[in-house]
Amino acid sequence: MRQHATQPLTDYHFHTSEMAAGGKHGRLSPPVPAPGFRDLSNEFLGAETRRNYIAEVFLFAIIVGVSAWPIALMVQALGQLK
Predict the structure, then answer these.
(1) How many Å apart are CA 76 and CA 51, to the nearest integer?
(2) What is the reported pTM?
(3) What does DSSP assign to residue 25?
(4) Is the separation of the CB atoms in 69 and 61 below 8 Å?
(5) Which residues contact 19 (CB under 8 A, 6 or more apart)?
(6) Are 18 and 28 in contact (CB under 8 A)?
(7) Are 15 and 9 contacting, i.e. CB atoms less than 8 angstroms apart?
(8) 17-69 pLDDT, tens per residue?
(9) CB neighbour burial string for 23-53, b if at least 16 within 10 angstroms, e if fewer
């Protein structure tokens, strides 16, 4: 083994806590059903999201329209040059 290792030593005797969580014989215990983050967020933000969604769609449509207008005018001007 080298005297001056560039990386730290690794503990190869590490064991997971599977036996402590699974009981005295090391069997895994059945998972406990818990509400997912998505369920919690949908329940908490359900009504507010619908209102915000309509406002955001309207604002997005305005931004797209304002952005597309100069491009449409440019294409029209290029068509008149021919």
Answers:
(1) 38
(2) 0.40
(3) T
(4) no
(5) 26
(6) yes
(7) no
(8) 555 444 555 556 666 666 676 777 777 777 667 777 888 999 999 999 999 99
(9) eeeeeeeeeeeeeeeeeeeeeeeeeeeeeee
Grouping H, G, I as helix, E, B as strand and the rest as coil, residue 47 is helix
Instruction: List own/partner pairs for 54-62 with CB under 8 A and 24 or more apart.
Output: none
Residue 75 has pLDDT above 70, yes or no: yes
pLDDT at 71: 96
Residue 74 confidence (pLDDT) above 60: yes
Distance CA 23, CA 25 (A): 6
Within 13 Å of residue 30, how many CA atoms lie on the same side as its CB?
2
